[in-house]
Amino acid sequence: MCTFVMDGRCYCTQSYGGIQRYKLEILERLEDELKYTDNIRVEVLYPSHLQLYIHVFEKIKFIPIDQKKKKFATQIIPQYIKDNNGIFIDFGIAWSIGKNGIVTLHDARQLTQKYDPIVERLMNTIKFQYDALVSKYIVTVSEFQKKEIESKVHIKDEKIKVIGCGWEHINKIHEDDKIFQKYKQINKNNFFYAMGSQYKHKNYAWIESVAEKNPNSQFVVAGKKVRDGCITERRNIIYVGTVTDAESKSLMKNAKAFIQPSKYEGFGIPPLEALACNAKVIVSDIPVFHEIYGESVYYIDPDQYDVDLNELLMKKIQDNRAVLQKYTWKNAAKAWYKLLKSYE
What we know:
By secondary structure, the chain is of the alpha/beta class. It folds into two domains: 179 residues, Rossmann fold, CATH 3.40.50; 156 residues, Glycogen Phosphorylase B (Rossmann fold). It is 35% helix and 17% strand. It is built from 13 helices and 13 strands. The strands form three sheets. A six-stranded parallel sheet has the order 10-9-8-11-12-13, sandwiched between helices. It has a four-stranded parallel sheet with strand order 3-2-1-4, covered by helices on one side. A three-stranded parallel sheet has the order 5-6-7. The longest helix is centred in the N-terminal third of the chain and has 17 residues.
């Protein structure tokens, strides 16, 4: 039997960004795949003093560990892996622990771009090099990211596996229209919606510039304000701050279009969520979005602000069925299961 060990501290939080969403959805659907084998065991370790915010599984075992004064990632997990002849796997951004494991690199931005502070870029370059050296496999979420990693890290092509994201979680979310009561100035069905963290590579300055040139169009922007690229409100921009999944779904379903003007992404889950809500989607003309979304979305130049979005939406595009069929959490979990079985 192969025993795979994970750091489960991420399941002791109720915060869900893109990477956290990946961790949760893959684990939940991997449980279904593991029902077909007794040769794979997945153990998720977490500090016993923390509360789990995920339901208990049958095949995947959650194991509480008394942390005491030891460091969880650098002392407890390595010792547990050694004592139990385990193999470390991670769906997020953890450093490799031990040899022969699997880690996930969602975003090579800090390897190839200069949006982040130099110290962060240096630390992530060291991490990528270390992961490439000690891991058996590195998983990333798009072919674009695979090429980015290969361009900066000396690593064999067969060592990098591409396992993308999905959208089915949106079906479990019931939209919350109270967001329109809270922000009565939102013109329902007649606004453009954007969301996400406002780091520089997210390019939310594009929203400001386009809003200034299109004073008769309304823009609703959701997301936490962070150190880079904070948006200042204009007359036709409504900044709603952090929203719940239910509020975001309601905004997606009632928007004229969802916009993601990023200059760099590893995958980009929000546009996929919007497609699943049957919303029109506008994204920046960058390689990863062409890879994922093909001709099912509208494209804008992320450096060009003189654009008529209403005219753009009049263009004919393909329907979203092929994209939604290809990129599912079920397909991603099957790919992870196949990868784990390769250890048998």
